[in-house]
Every structure is written in C-alpha cells, then in structure tokens.
Specification:
Pfam families: TusA. This is SirA family protein. InterPro entries: DsrEFH-like, Se_metab_YedF, TusA-like, TusA-like_sf. Belongs to the sulfur carrier protein TusA family. The chain is an alpha/beta fold. It folds into 2 domains: 67 residues, Translation Initiation Factor IF3 (2-Layer Sandwich), CATH 3.30.110.40; 108 residues, DsrEFH-like (Hypothetical Protein Ychn, Chain: A), CATH 3.40.1260.10. Helix content is 33%, strand content 23%. The protein is built from 6 helices and 9 strands; from the N terminus they run E-H-E-H-E-E-E-H-E-H-E-H-E-H-E. A 5-stranded parallel sheet has the order 8-7-6-5-9. Strand 5, helix 3 and strand 6 form a beta-alpha-beta unit. 34% of the residues are buried.
C-alpha cells in the first residue's frame, strides 16, 4: 500500500495529491497522512464522493486515512458535463455601488431565489461571499430553505479560515478549491453574482 504525507499542506494540495495517487494506482489502497480540520475533511469527502471507502485512524498526532475501492462518478458537489447550474457567490454584496446598497441587493437577491422556479443546483461561496453562510448573516434562513429545496451550499474552507469564521458556519458545508474548480468546469452553466 502506497503512503503519501500531506501534513502541513494548504488547500487544495492534499486533495490534488490524493487524486493523482489514486489515478496512478487505480483500485489499490492508499494511505494518506493528514492534519486535522479542513485537510482531513476535504480528502475524506473527496474519496467518499467517488464511492471509495475511507478508514480513519490517529497516528502520532496526525490522521491516517486509508482509501480503498474503485472510483465511481461523484455523488455530490462534483457534477457531470451538461448537468448542473452552478452559482458562484464571490462577495457579500451585489454590484459596485455603495457598500450598504450592495449588501441590501445581495440579501434581496438570495431571498428572491426562494420565489423563482429554476434555482441553481449548487451555490459556491468564496471570498467575502462566505460571510453570507456564517452566523450573523441575514440570509441564513433563506439559504437553509434553498438547501431544503435541493440546492447544495458550499463555502470555501480557505476563505472561512481567512475570516476566522469556520466555526461559525451556519448554512451548507465546507469545501475546497479542487471541488470548486471541478464543479465549475463540469457545470452546464456558471452564474457569478
């Protein structure tokens, strides 16, 4: 069994290294050493989304994930070409005008999504957009309702860390740049707001 050491690596490098190792040795188990937190969560989710089994143990203060099985099409967060509509929310405000107006417009936009027929399949929140998915945001209830309608809500883990808001995430789940890039590249359409 091959072992790769992904400790002390920033997002999305652990996921990228795991992806490459799995492609180089398809069907063979892979042992991955990771730090706790986002790297462990991201690699575990990446493997699980591909139908792989993940066995986790603690080894000397680090986490060891043994990934095994045969890869399948991703179950969530990664879409097939021609599939989903992805909305990229890259700021906590809409437009280039006054900050207060931009925040009001973004709030109204997200709340209005509850009343439209065609909602996005996936909403990716990056940069200051992640502030909309964390405690204190005025759109948490609307995002939760969108989630109940089947909209997947993902927030960039690096962005949440940057703003010290990862422990305050209130809507959706944490994701990584690999999943964000792959989802956008494989989407039917990407709408940036």
């Amino acid at each position: 069994m091959k072992t790769i050491d992904c400790r002390n690596m920033a997002c999305p490098q652990p996921v990228v290294m795991v992806k490459r190792a799995l492609e180089e040795n398809p069907g063979e188990p892979l042992n991955v050493l990771l730090d706790d937190g986002a790297p462990r969560e991201n690699v575990g989710r990446f493997a699980a989304n591909r139908g792989l089994e993940v066995e986790e143990t603690v080894v000397g203060g680090a986490f060891s994930l043994v990934i095994s099985g045969t890869q399948q099409q991703a179950k969530e967060g990664v879409v097939s070409i021609g599939g989903k509509t992805v909305m990229l929310v890259a700021a906590d405000r809409l437009g280039d005008g006054p900050e207060e107006l931009g925040r009001l417009l973004m709030k109204n936009f997200i709340i209005t999504l509850l009343d439209v027929t065609d909602v996005p399949d996936l909403m990716l929140f990056v940069n200051t957009g992640v502030l909309l998915t964390t405690e204190g945001s005025e759109v948490i209830e609307a995002l939760e309702k969108l989630g109940n309608r089947g909209v997947e809500i993902f927030s960039c883990g690096v962005c949440l860390d940057f703003f010290h808001r990862k422990d305050k995430l209130a809507a959706g789940t944490v994701t990584n740049m690999f999943t964000i890039a792959e989802s956008m590249l494989q989407a039917r359409s990407v709408i940036r707001v």
